[in-house]
Amino acid sequence: xxxxxxxxxxxxxxxxxxxxxxxxxxxxxxxxxxxxxxxxxxxxxxxxxxxxxxxxxxxxxxxxxxxxxxxxxxxxxxxxxxxxxxxxxxxxxxxxxxxxxxxxxxxxxxxxxxxxxxxxxxxxxxxxxxxxxxxxxxxxxxxxxxxxxxxxxxxxxxxxx
Length: 161
Known about the structure:
mainly beta
């Protein structure tokens, strides 16, 4: 994120929690994300990324649905939105990764069968999910995923394990 603080989102018994490690090395107390951004269900997986001065958080709840919320630079949260509904997909996701690239949020979801990729544009609209394995080849069964922006946000890298 723009000010070089480190944001951490984690899950505890279906709940989602968030904290910040400031540049001076001090940690903020954990805050309850579901209390701040709404409660779409019991979270099983979480990923987060900075896009400009905002933190974007994506989580998968029971039923395999991806939900997304934004923590703005002023500390306020948007409500969680159903990414599956907004992208028109009916898949059961088992893991997720995301990265901020040139002002947009790139989301990778693993369905145990394939990897799907969508982009949340700066205006809040989503692309449809595209099939990564169809475009990039099938390396086999994917156990874990991670992604990051590189080159100062001009490109995007996806790692599969």
